[in-house]
Amino acid sequence: MFALRHFNSSASSLHPRWGNGSAGMVEAMVTDMEHQQQENVTALQNQTSGAMIVVLPMSLGIISNTVALFILVNAYSLQRRRSKATFLLFATSLVITDFFGHVIPGALVLRLYLSGGASPEDSSDSMCQFLGGSMVFFGLCPLFMGCAMAAERCLGVTKPLLHSSLVTKTRTKVCLSVIWLVALSVALLPCFQLGSYTYQEPKTWCFINVLNDTMEVDVAFVVLFSGLGLTSLAVALVCNTISGLTLVLARIRRQPGSHHSARSHDIEMVVQLVGITVTSCICWSPLLLFCYAMGTSSTVFP
Q1: CA-to-CA distance for 277 and 263, rounded, in angstroms?
Q2: CA end-to-end span of the chain, whole Å?
Q3: What gap in Å lies between CA 41 and CA 34, rounded to an integer?
Q4: What is the DSSP letter of 27?
């Protein structure tokens, strides 16, 4: 009995006795661990939401362009009229270019989102150069193509005889090649120290340097990019307006009972062009105007 009581008293003396200071340290450690866990959960949620923001428009763009490509290829193979075939060749090239414009930059931006973005000390690297060049190339190509399509339709509506003698499939392919070459040349200018690409906040995409430590070549580069884009949009708007007014006047002057199947095709193509132009204006005008404003303001206030 005495031995058992002695053992209990000895065992109780072996238990650690926490003081007020030790208890405070343990509580602080637990609070810090909970705070770190909460930060990890928040970071994971932000990363997931950022990835969804990239994946959703990229997936919609890929699906819509794939469907449009199948429709255009089928229509191109069945088309007999040369003017319509030329328009479909432009439209098919536009859809293919826009398809890759969703896949390539979207995949790179998604990779940056999943990796948590570029480190703060990285202002530009090979991946940023490629992503920035892709943004410029796939941004200018649809604008140039929309402008060329509008000009081609304007010529076909207002001067059909001149259009039939000038516009051919071969010349259309040459025009498309020139468009891709010009857009690629502009995108590669930073490789020759004529402008630069840099990571943009939140360090998950790259574009022309217009905000931090801009130099004269950066200003010239951004003004060139925005100027080409805005000019293409303006020319497309003017050509579509002329084409639309010409078709409306022709419909008003048409004799009762006369049939104009060619005009119906022209109306269909002009309506499609108006849709393309409006979409381009909505998607690109804010960025182009912002770049142009930043470039001109940097020129006035260096």
Answers
A1: 21
A2: 94
A3: 11
A4: H
